Structures are given as structure tokens and as C-alpha cells.
């Protein structure tokens, strides 16, 4: 009973942190709760929130994808060039961007599963490759001049709510369904807890991991399209460092970097915290470098907490007489 309540207690704690942060910025910056600023925050977190869904899947399986930032960069550049340079209709360019994002994620998954190289190394290498490709394609120059219909995706509103927020809600609904209502979601947790035990119990671990990275690439491409539409300009530097914002949001929300634990609800609250923190610090005219220090400290603290709490649970299981391996399989 106690163990079942623990995740909920942690999620409520994260929600409390978000509420305290909102109150603090409301006091320190008078314009923070202005409706225009709230809508601005909603637009800003749309890309972060959508990317966090796929990234959460990867973390839950015990992996990581450091190439997310430059996946965004490549998708933004390619999509922008297809529309501005080749005159391809925006809806077809968006479709091709989704295919590109899925293929990049698929390649990550295939390399990881068939070579056995650590996801950290594979995706770090992919990050460098995509960085180079985005600069080669754009030649380091901004790309602009997109159709008006495309701009509606990231800048438009429907019934007073940004269109990008509707995309965010749909993606999170799909993510929640996959994670909580399908056997595939259970496979994600099983692999994250103990990949060998999951394989021995009949889970096709290789295919599942490939699927996870493909989904991460697909969701990242959706986020990239919305970001491009909001900025209305494609640049190679777009998305640089974004992977650490996504990682910070997920870990803050209780997704374990060691795999097997976490929920999308917690990750969503983490996204809100990062979005509010970014916006509030900008309104307070805090230096960009100071912001990096603050977010780096937050990420480090969250990772340390995750590692310590996992070791503590492991010791409790051993003291209770439950074999650790068995406990992992049953989780």
C-alpha cells in the first residue's frame, strides 16, 4: 500500500514546487500573470512538452537520446528549405519532416540494439552528425518566407487557445494511452527495470527499444515543426542545447535516468516548471549564462536525488528479505 502511494506523493510534491514557483514569479514580476504572457508560455512549452513524451519513453526503458536538440535543428532546416526553396506545399513539407524525424530515431534505435554501444555514445555521435548536416544544408544562413497557413500552427489560436496547445494535448493523450493502456507501455517499464529479465519473459527487447527511439524521433519532429512555425525562421542553431531542457523537465518530473520509473503526469509538471522558470528568469532580466547555471544545478540535483532514492529502495528491499533481481522483475 505504501509503495503504491509513493509515486503519487512524489508527483504531488513536484506539483507543489510548480505552484510555489508560479507564486514567486507572480510577486517578483508584475507582468508574469498577464494573459498575454500566459499564452506566450503556453506556446513556448508546446515543443518542450511534445518532445518530452518521446524522451520519457526513452528514459523509462533505461536509454537516453542526446541528439534531440539537433534532430530539431535538422528538421527545422529541412522543412524550411522544402517550403522556401523548393516551393513544396507546407502540409507536404510537414509530412516529410515527420518521416525524417522517425527515420533518425529509427537509425538511433537500430545502432543501439544491433551494436550494443551505449545509447549515450550513439546519440552523442548522432548529435554531432546532425549538427554538421544542418549547417551543410543551410550553409549557416537563416531560411524564411513560409506560407501563411504554416504560420498558423505555431502562432495561431482557436477559441483563444494557441493551436500548438491542441497539438500538445493530443500528443500527451496518445503518450498516456501507449504508456498506461497498452502492453507496449508495460514493456517499456519492464525493459527499464531489467532488460534481461524482460527478454527471458518473452519481450522482444530489441524491437521495443527500436520502437522507442523511432517514437522519440517522431514526437521530436512534431515539436520541431511547431517551433519553426512559431519562430517563422529556420536556422541551424535552432534546437542547440534543447536536449538538456527536455532531460531536465523529465527528471524533475520523476522520470528516472536509470529506467523503469516515472509517469507522464510528472513529466508534464516538469515541463511546466522548466517553462515557467525560463519565462520568469527572462522577465527578471537574468543573464542567459546565469540561467544556464541555475538549470544545470537543478538538473544535477534532480539526478543525484534519483540515484540516492534508487539506492535507498534497493537497500530496503534487501533488508526486507526480497531478492533485488526478483523485485526488479515484478516491478
Automatic annotation (TrEMBL):
Cited InterPro entries: ABC_transp_permease
Name the record gives this protein: Ribose transport system permease protein
Q: Where are the transmembrane segments?
A: 12-33, 45-68, 88-110, 117-137, 157-179, 209-228, 240-257, 264-283, 289-308
Compartment list: Cell membrane
Keyword tags? Cell membrane, Membrane, Transmembrane, Transmembrane helix
Domain of life where this protein originates: Bacteria
| Matching Pfam families | BPD_transp_2 (PF02653)
| Predominant cellular place of this UniProt entry's protein | membrane
